[in-house]
Amino acid sequence: MFQAVAKTLSVASTSSVSRGMLIRHYCKKTPTKLRVSEAISVAELGANVKVQGWVRSVRPQKANLFLNVNDGSSFRSLQVVATSELNDPLLTFGSAVEVTGILKKSPHQNQTVELEAEEIHVIGECNPVDFPFKIKERHGLEYIRQFPHLRCRTNVFSSLLRIRSEATSGIHSYFKENDFVQIHTPVITSNDCEGAGELFQVEPSVKEKEEDQNFFSVPAFLNVSGQLHLEVMSGAFSKVYTFGPTFRAENSQSRRHLAEFYMVEAEVSFTESLEDLTKVMEDMFRSATEHVLAHCAEDVDLFHKHVTPGHRDTVDAMLKGRFPTITYSEAIDILNRSSEKFAFPTDWGCDLQTEHEKYLVKHCGNIPVFVTDYPFDLKPFYARDNQDHPRHTAAAVDLLVPGVGELCGGSLREERLDLLRARLEGMGLEDTYSWYLDLRSFGSVPHGGFGLGFERYLQCILGVDNIKDVIPFPRFSHSCLL
Length: 482
Fold this sequence. Notes:
Layout (H helix, E strand, L loop, with lengths): L6 E4 L8 H9 L4 E3 L1 H6 L6 E13 L3 E7 L7 E6 L12 E10 L7 E12 L16 H4 L10 H23 L3 E2 L5 E2 L31 E2 L4 H7 L5 E9 L12 E10 L4 H22 L1 H11 L3 H10 L4 E3 H10 L16 H10 L5 E7 L17 E9 L3 E8 L4 H10 L7 H6 L7 E7 H9 L20
Parallel strand pairs: 2-3, 5-7, 8-11, 13-14
Antiparallel strand pairs: 1-7, 3-4, 3-6, 4-5, 6-7, 9-10, 11-12, 12-17, 14-15, 15-16, 16-17
Helix pairs in contact: 4-6, 4-7
């Protein structure tokens, strides 16, 4: 029964076609091809249209057949009404169809239009027995994660992908409206921006005869950040940003980590103030979130009502007021005064762990909070030295958000050549980063920047607990499906 052939179902049989009917057929207006979103929202009633998509539900009755068809363009499906003569065993949940008919006003309150079908073409069959998703079952995120090649067919993951697309658009729009220049930073690099050594090395699959010869003449890696390349560009453009994949060879299968993820990074020239950076972070967060809520309201509601009930209140609270700012020293005092029993130490000089970050967010009212002026030794070589004593700090800032912890990390960059050279010499990296020192020798200006983890941002606004559920194809240690 389930063979890969297209089948046409029509009310009129070929044997009953008369000459007069043929004349009317040739005079008939060619149907207008519409996406489901267009058919639901902008199409004219009475229009002869063609819609292509996948069957989300099938309800055969004695006299009529009801289908819900969706093509991914909309959260809502288009209801198709047909006579029972058009019913066929090939019309199943998950099958791909092409439907031609007339758009009519729907008598039901929950939908404005429906498509009165004249013809239904089954383009791709779907065996409901073998298909891992069942029509009357609500599958959890953990279950559908087992099927990375099929989970986009589910309501919840198709909503996630539309939200992800609109969030991407919202971020680009923010930077465009604020005169940032987009830079395509390289995926392959010879630098370790974070200095943590969690790098994927890039080598040809077929090596040259001389085993010691590198393809690029130097060791090359997948990038862990586009920051250093943005800093190059910030010597000619006062506002730059990049948005693309980054890679960390972190041997972790936790809910928080991926080996491949997307980063939004920005650099601003002619600034000596962390407030300039925090303003960009906060404004971008607000702008992108408002864009998503405006353009994907039904998709977001699916998460806030059925996946993470009550999370909409958290999102609304995040957008109400300005984000507070505390220093690292104040954060340590808050943690030490609390009655909470932490697994990790909270001494001054210790890095903040996720449990600390989430507590600080709750302490500040369960809204995003900036933490500034971290211990100098905790930050990379490029973070600007505050030259304060006895507690030596760097001009660095993190944005902590509900449910996630750290969302953004940034700093003013050390523009003073003598201080930067001394630090690189102390780390034995002066030769490796000689080009970085050059940037400070030719028209250098005070500048700073930050990076935002895009998947963590989606977790924050949707309330999703596992980062693997907000990216199309998650890569992590011991898992690279597809």
